């Protein structure tokens, strides 16, 4: 009998199968999640990029139609790989759950018309996140024959302010539910999220509020027992060696040599700008040091001057998978 082809292993520095990407709003976590999915798919692998917030951020990033509750081809990756995408909808996930465990089929779909699904997720708000994470777990552990369907699953997760509650709701549900499929599913999801198969990566900018939220989120995740992977600094500028400030006279001579205006207003404006930049860089260096003190792998992604287009995503993808 011919040997069953085994899936390529994830890149050595990204050994988990489920990569949860979070970060304060505005840090570019969706772009980082997409780049990571693209990078992990290189070399003939298949990854799944999942979103759960209903923002359709993945579709906007790739310029495609809104994603349905269906895994579909999103883009090819270098070396014959493939990235597929899925937007998890809580209502559709509940219908799937009811059909899977209670065989309701058409009766389950009829519940939507009666408003029972909204009612269920209203009286049990945590149920929504249980359904969302349950679908992610199913995709992560699914097999086709004797191999995993996906070599890696990348989840564009809720922001740092909600990530602890989002990931921990299954443990709370498993504790409250005494018996039945909900308890079993919740326990399974909770176990996966706390296992070496999962890594939670936190995206930040070198700005005070995102860095503070990163520190707080990592402390919360660690306390709850979730495996934290990397801190990813997005839009970073390389550190600049400190040195003396350029004087106004030096600036004036430089402007004159370049054939540019040397009036007092121009020189004073440039001096002020140079001073502001120096202060900004010193703050960034201080925040970078705070992140280093966390003792986690730190990856810095550059600010892309042309924005995050396909070429930019490939640049970020390459940097991520080559990270130390």
Description:
Helix 3 (90-102) crosses helix 6 (126-141). The protein has helices at residues 29-41, 57-62, 90-102, 106-114, 116-123, 126-141, 160-176, 181-193, 208-224, 248-257, 264-292, 310-321; strands at 18-23, 46-51, 72-77, 81-87, 143-144, 147-148, 152-156, 198-204, 228-236, 298-302. It is 50% helix and 17% strand. The model is unreliable at 1-8 (pLDDT under 50). The strands form 2 sheets. Strands 3-4-2-7-1-8-9-10 form an 8-stranded mixed sheet, sandwiched between helices. The chain has one domain (18-237, 295-321): Rossmann fold, CATH 3.40.50.300. It contains 12 helices and 10 strands. InterPro entries: ArsA/GET3_ATPase-like (IPR025723), ATPase_ArsA/GET3 (IPR016300), P-loop_NTPase (IPR027417). It comes from Micromonospora auratinigra. This is Arsenite efflux ATP-binding protein ArsA.
Task: Output the keywords.
single chain; Rossmann fold; disordered N terminus; two-stranded antiparallel ribbon; 10 strands; Arsenite efflux ATP-binding protein ArsA; alpha/beta; nucleotide-binding; 12 helices; elongated; 324 residues; 8-stranded mixed β-sheet
